[in-house]
Structure formats: C-alpha cells, structure tokens
Amino acid sequence: MRNEPFGTRLRAIMDARGPLCVGIDPHQHLLDQWGLPDTAEGLASFTYGVVDALADRVGVFKPQSAFFERFGSAGVAVLEQATIRLREAGALVIIDAKRGDIGTTMAGYASAYLAEKGPLACDALTVSPYLGFGSLQPAIDEARAAGAGLFVLALTSNPEGPQFQSARTVDGPTVAGAVLDGLRSLNDADGSSFGSFGAVVGATISRTDEDLDIRGPLLAPGLGAQGGTAEALRAVFGEVAARNVVPSSSREILGAGPNAAGLQEAADRANDAYRTALGY
Ligand SMILES: O=C(O)c1cc(=O)[nH]c(=O)n1[C@@H]1O[C@H](COP(=O)(O)O)[C@@H](O)[C@H]1O
C-alpha cells in the first residue's frame, strides 16, 4: 500500500480526486444532529456513514483521534477500522493525534501510527514540535523507512497559536520559521519537489512573512466552521505554495449528513471551490 513515498502518493491523489481533505471529527453535537446516540455504537454509525459516502470520491481524510479516544478502546477500534476501509478505497489517511515526545517515547508513537504493520497504520500523522524539532527524529526515521508522512504544527489556526509560534528562537527565526526551515531541509534531503514532511498552516491566519515554500504539503485546517474561506486560501498561501495546500474541512462537510447524497454534494462543492482557489 505504501509502494511510494507519502508526498508522491499525496500529489497523485490530489491531482486525481482534488485537494480536499475531509476531517472526520465526530463531535457530540454532530452525533446528536445525525440522530445518533453519544456512544461507541453511535460513533461507529457516524464514522462508517462518512466512509461509505466519501471513501472513493475524496482523496484525503483526517480523522481526529480525540473524538475516538473519547470512547476508549471501543472508539479506537472504530478509528482503526475506518482507517483500513478508507485506505482500501484508495484514499490517504492522516491521523490527527498531534503527538510529540522525546526519544524512545516518540519512537513508540511512530511504531503505532507510521510503521507499515502498526495497529493504527495510516499514511501520515500530525505531530507537535514543541519539545524541539529534533525530538521528532524517531518519527522522521520511521516515516522515511515506511513511506509515510508527517504534518508538523507550524502556524496553527487557533487564536492562541502566535503566543509561542511567533516568538523568536535563540538562533533568530521565529518558532514557526524554525519548523518550516526544518521541514524544507528534510524534503530537500530527500530530493523531492513535493516531499513527505508537511506543515500545518491554518487557513485562518492572515498573510504571513514566513517562507511557506517547504517543498512539501501544507495542511490547511480552519476552513468553514472556524471562518477560513476558499477565497482567502490564495491570499494566505500565495502563488508559490498554492498547489501544495491540502485544505481540510470537518464540521462544514459533516454537518451535511447523515444523508450520503448530502455529504457527497458538500464534499464536491468544497473540492470544486478549493480547486479553483488553488489554481488546479
Ligand atoms: O492539525 C490540525 O488538523 C489542526 C491544526 C490547526 O491549526 N487547527 C485545527 O483546527 N486543526 C484540526 O482541524 C480540525 C478542524 O475542524 P473544523 O473546524 O470542524 O473544520 C480539528 O480536528 C482540529 O483539531
């Protein structure tokens, strides 16, 4: 399933199915809206409803681990199953767990999510660099070995993000700039024009002075429910980075369910808007 590096596979599926990433965030209020109980069974019906409706027409999915962990092992089992089903349908899965730790602990997370035979094997994992970019090395090594990818938090969509991300490091660049520099170096070292090491850059940030040309993907959450728009994407990411953007939307799409046709229409509409905005 991972016969090529993540970046290569991501480029191909975005070109084929459009850039949209559907976030699977089964919030309690969405379960309620879909007429489902707030239980592991409700979570399973919701998640598999999204999978059945969209797995073969959307290229990228980003299940939010928190909403599965909420139900303990029964919820995590749904995340495992959904990931398997989505990947069998040819879609790529980014598990959004924002992991980040030191040394052998980071290696533990990497073997769970990134190793080919890991129990939660997906295509890419969101990770947090706030223990130092170098603390991610075990995940970087595992991703390279397994043909998987990473998305490292850089300029997040939440209003609290700049408190740390805009602060200067001892070497001079901002924290976000240091993360982007680190990712650019990894992708350059792999000799790829679209590498496997991506940054998370919220669609809600205004135009930034940071260099977003990391030769890799830019995951852009914050669309729809958090106020980011397709039109604003071009302004945030500019010409150079536009084709590298993976626009991610959760509640905006999920709110169109439980009807499969409603979900499909919402996903197609969003994909068309992002294609136009990003110059496809
Ligand atoms: O890493 C993420 O995906 C992420 C980073 C970020 O800066 N902002 C952000 O909202 N997210 C995630 O993206 C999803 C946004 O969901 P919606 O606002 O419903 O589209 C949630 O799962 C967030 O955890």
From TrEMBL:
Classification via Gene3D superfamilies: Aldolase class I
Transmembrane segments: none
Catalytic site positions: K98 (proton donor)
Annotated Orotidine 5'-phosphate decarboxylase domain residues: 19-266
Name of this protein: Orotidine 5'-phosphate decarboxylase
UniProtKB keywords: Decarboxylase, Lyase, Pyrimidine biosynthesis
HAMAP family according to UniProt: OMPdecase_type2
Origin species: Kribbella antibiotica
Matching Pfam families: OMPdecase
Gene giving rise to this polypeptide: pyrF
GO molecular function: orotidine-5'-phosphate decarboxylase activity
Protein family per UniProt: Belongs to the OMP decarboxylase family. Type 2 subfamily.
